[in-house]
């Protein structure tokens, strides 16, 4: 049977799979870049001591390494979020999205979104730190939309949990 939303679900599955692959590629690049920053440290120091002239590489290079480690944490949060979202899409395709597993998945997605918001704040601190060292990183607070989405996700997870419980109770009564 062809459902009117099947095209949207197929597109969502395709997009989520592409995003997961791109996210994993980003993680792989970070895993290579972190040790490379130690291997090529003299070249980094030379480069940053010349452009612009006021950057202090002794301050900047360690901060950039910390930034990369935090970016790995972001990659992990995004990967978990995308995996849970893809699993939810699969339950919609199967015709039974209101299951306890999806309530748990939605809660995990909420925790991932919270981690991403906290990491975004940490990246802002890192940007301010490298700017204090003489760099010019443009990093803006993204407003409250992401924080509102986190709250919404936690609420929706609870709604899913309650709805699933109500459905289970109803099925037991019948």
Write the layout of secondary structure elements.
Elements: H1 6-39, H2 41-50, H3 57-94, H4 100-132, H5 145-173
Helix pairs in contact: 1-3, 2-3, 3-4, 4-5
Verbal overview:
This protein has one domain. The protein is 83% helix and 0% strand. It is built from 5 helices and no strands. The chain has helices at residues 6-39, 41-50, 57-94, 100-132, 145-173. Helix 3 (57-94) runs antiparallel to helix 4 (100-132). It is elongated, with a radius of gyration of 22 Å.
Which descriptors would you attach to this protein?
174 residues
How is this structure best summarized?
With 174 residues, this protein is mainly α. It has one domain (6-173).
SSE arrangement, N to C = HHHHH
Computed over alpha carbons, the radius of gyration is 22 Å
First CA to last CA: what distance? 28 Å
The tally of domains stands at 1
What share of the residues does DSSP label as strand, in percent? under 5%
Oligomeric status of the shown chains? single chain
The main pleated sheet reads as: none
Q: Based on CA inertia axes, which overall geometry fits?
A: elongated
Unreliable sequence segments: none
Structural class: mainly alpha
Q: What share of residues is helical? A: over 70%
Rounded average pLDDT: 90
Number of strands: 0
Number of helices: 5
